[in-house]
Design brief:
It is a single chain. The protein has 293 residues and is mainly β. It contains 1 helix and 25 strands. The chain has one helix at residues 16-22, and strands at residues 3-5, 10-12, 30-32, 38-41, 44-48, 52-59, 65-69, 76-85, 93-99, 106-108, 111-119, 127-129, 139-141, 146-151, 159-168, 173-178, 185-186, 192-193, 199-200, 207-217, 228-234, 240-244, 252-263, 268-275, 282-292. The strands form 5 sheets. Strands 4-5-7-14-9-11-10 form a 7-stranded mixed β-sheet, with no helix packed on it. Strands 3, 6, 8, 12, 13 and 15 form a 6-stranded antiparallel β-sheet that branches. A hairpin with a 2-residue loop joins strand 4 and strand 5. The longest helix has 7 residues, at 16-22. The radius of gyration is 18 Å and the shape is globular. The two termini are 25 Å apart.
Length: 293
């Protein structure tokens, strides 16, 4: 949900500032099981995206990220990404996936941050499923497209691993982020809402909303959910003609699936959450909506 990038450090976490002020940066190093990978820069491990399940190990989590490029002449799809740390059982860990743009939001629909999840102390981190359904398409990576995977383990983690499963694309799937830009909201004891920032279908053809993966960080007392959240479709007049609120407030990296909803040219999709929590906690919520065409 939160990606910070500089020449020497990449951090993905609601607690990024805390991490940077409390961790010693380890020497940059990386090892992968794919001999075709290369360290093109100190904090980047660059590899071709390949069909099947590929496993990678990266050292120095605060300074490493994985860059996968589709160097083939066919469209591929990402079915799942599984991250894990060294497993000492007490570390906070978050990881995020970006498509073509390494940023904390989406400046264009489907370009930028396309999924995130995290674990809290003593809980195994979840796999991110990037398919609209078990038989549906996965996140599309066209020839020349790039996928970024970035982690933020605590400084006690000596390394982390990531498994990426890809296959030939069946049809096109993107994830459109709501809100568009990352928000880390400081709790104040009052009802607070995420930013309202719909995406308009400007493709010239009808699309389908088929579900979403949900990232929820509620602050307290429940860390993996917020009070309320909904997904919306707005008609060309800006009026809500469809809403889905069931389980949209709960962290769900495995994917929340809905009956396909047509998104006509000029219509918009949106998502918004509301939460109440006490200072000094922070909270955030993001929906990565599955858009098929």
């Amino acid at each position: 949900m939160k990606l910070h990038r500089s020449a020497a450090v990449v951090v993905t976490s609601l607690f990024a500032a805390w991490l940077l002020s409390n961790c010693q940066e380890a020497p940059a190093a990386a090892v992968t099981r794919d001999a075709t990978c290369a360290n093109s820069r100190t904090n980047e491990v660059s590899c071709p995206l390949m069909i099947g399940e590929q496993n990678y190990r990266l050292d120095s989590g605060l300074t490493q990220y994985l860059k996968l490029t589709n160097t083939s002449d066919q469209s591929l799809q990402i079915d799942a990404v599984q991250g894990a740390a060294a497993g000492r059982g007490r570390e906070f860990l978050e990881y995020c996936i970006g498509r073509n743009r390494f940023e904390t939001g989406q400046s264009a629909a489907g370009e930028g941050e396309v999924a995130c999840t995290s674990r809290n102390s003593g809980v195994a981190i979840s796999s991110i499923k990037l398919r609209s359904s078990p038989a549906g398409p996965g996140l599309t990576v066209q020839p020349g497209d790039t996928l970024y995977v970035s982690f933020s383990p605590m400084h006690t983690e000596p390394w982390f691993t990531v498994s990426v499963t890809a296959s030939a694309a069946s049809r096109r799937l993107e994830t459109w982020r709501q809100p568009r830009v990352d928000q880390v909201i400081r709790c104040n004891g009052q009802v607070q809402q995420t930013r309202w920032s719909p995406w308009v279908n400007q493709t010239g053809r009808p699309l389908s909303l088929t579900g979403a993966t949900i990232y929820a960080q509620g602050g307290e007392p429940v860390l993996d959910q917020v009070d309320a959240a909904c997904l919306y479709i707005l008609n060309t007049a800006g009026e809500v003609r469809y809403r889905m609120c069931d389980s949209v407030n709960v962290r769900n990296p495995s994917g929340l699936r809905i009956a396909p909803q047509t998104l006509a040219q000029g219509e918009a999709v949106a998502g918004q959450a509301a939460n109440t929590c006490r200072a000094p906690a922070v909270w955030g919520w993001t929906a990565y909506m599955f858009i098929e065409n």
